[in-house]
């Protein structure tokens, strides 16, 4: 029987840690972007998104990023020309 180091984290521990960091990071990013976009949303829309982002880990923030993402246009806009 191979010896196992009791101080080394097991693979599932590492996987859960990565998933947790990913979920928290995505939630923080989505909430920050939601706060920036708050002026174009009603209060109920913003509250609904906050609930989705916080209660549906990983999927909720990804939904916000996919649904409400405005791509950055390259080059100058027509107003600048």
TrEMBL record:
Domain called Cardiolipin synthase N-terminal: residue spans: 26-67
A GO cellular component annotation in the UniProt record: plasma membrane
TM stretches of this protein: 14-34, 46-67
Keywords: Cell membrane, Membrane, Transmembrane, Transmembrane helix
Entry membrane topology: Multi-pass membrane protein
Subcellular location: Cell membrane
Pfam family, one: PLDc_N
Protein name from the UniProt record: Cardiolipin synthase N-terminal domain-containing protein
